[in-house]
Structures are given as structure tokens and as C-alpha cells.
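Here comes my example:
=====
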Amino acid sequence: MSNIYTDVKTALAASGYPVYQESAAPAESFPDTYLTYMVIFDEGLLHAKNQPVGNAARVMVKLYSRDPEITQGGRGTLDGLMSECLRIGGGDLPYYAPTGHYGYTCDYRYFDYEED
């Protein structure tokens, strides 16, 4: 089975924007547009007939930008990047005046099934 952190970062990197794990987002100089992600719940192994069949987790992804038009299209952008996952909710984040960023967030269900 693959690594959830690697899979999510790889999917988000296709955007062309910098990608950070939530706790490793830049502290001082924020890019104009960037993405963060965080595994907020890892269910671990899923079983069927007493055999491991895969992993499941909930991942929070955030898109930040100084351009409000980018975050207003955030749902489509994130859904396109996370197309292998199930979207379970999202919405706008408050404007953050100290850095001038708007934001959009979505949660996704990530599934990684073992191949037979």
C-alpha cells in the first residue's frame, strides 16, 4: 500500500502551486498562492473476511491565495486535484488580513485498496 502523505502531496503538486503539510506551512514569507494538507483522521487498515484490504483516512486540503478569484474557484480546483478521493465538505475560509490571503478548504475521504 502507498503512503497517504506522498499520495496527497503528489496529487496537489499537479496544481503547480507550492504544497505544504499543514504544520510545515511557511512562517514568514507566504507565496501568493499555495496549498496545505493535513491528515485529520486515519482509520488505518480496513478488513474484509478477516483480511486487510486497504487503508482509509480523512484529509483536509486548503487553498490560499491573495487573488480572491483563485479561491472562489477553489472547489473545482481541489476536486480536480483530489479526483481519486471522495469529497465530504468544504467552504470559504475567512480573509486573513496580516498576509492578505483568502482561503478555501475541503475535506476528502482517501481510500487506498490493496491490489489482488
Summary: The chain is about 20% helix and 50% strand. The CA atoms of residues 71 and 104 lie 6 Å apart.
